Amino acid sequence: MYKKTIEFEDFDGNACKEDKFFHLSETELAEMELSTDGGMVKLLEKIVNEKDNSKIIEYFKMLILKSYGEKSLDGKSFIKVDSEGHPLSIAFSQTAAYDALFMELATDADKAAAFVNGILPKKFQKDNLKDVIDSANKLANQ
Q: What is the torsional sign of CA 111, 116, 120, 126?
């Protein structure tokens, strides 16, 4: 699980600072890896090589929203849906905190790499993600 402190300005103009939590379980990661030809890193490398900015943005958005959740009070669960089965990420995506996080990751390769590595289970973390993300960010800023 990755705890990210996000600083942002709310819609009333107040400076805010909140801790948000992100995590991809081994099961979720396995599903993503197996449903993506060549795996996620290969997909991102392909997108970068094809200079497809819209796909890069789509991929980062998917990673943020798929990994967003709340840690249970006892620390035994990471909850991603509410009691009615709605993803918590839907409400999160409509906040100024999401906007601040997204823009931070889209403009800073080191922070993007730290985020991606942080949300992955340790045994799936990749050393080459920073290079791929750095290339994606350079492409997006051209």
A: negative
CA distance 98 to 8: 9
Largest CA distance in the chain: 46
- DSSP states of 36-101 as a string? STT-HHHHHHHHHHTT-HHHHHHHHHHHHHHHEEEE-TTSS-EE-B-TTS-BHHHHHTTSHHHHHH
Q: pLDDT tens for residues 12-63?
A: 999 999 999 999 988 888 788 788 887 776 776 776 677 777 777 888 899 9
pTM confidence score = 0.80
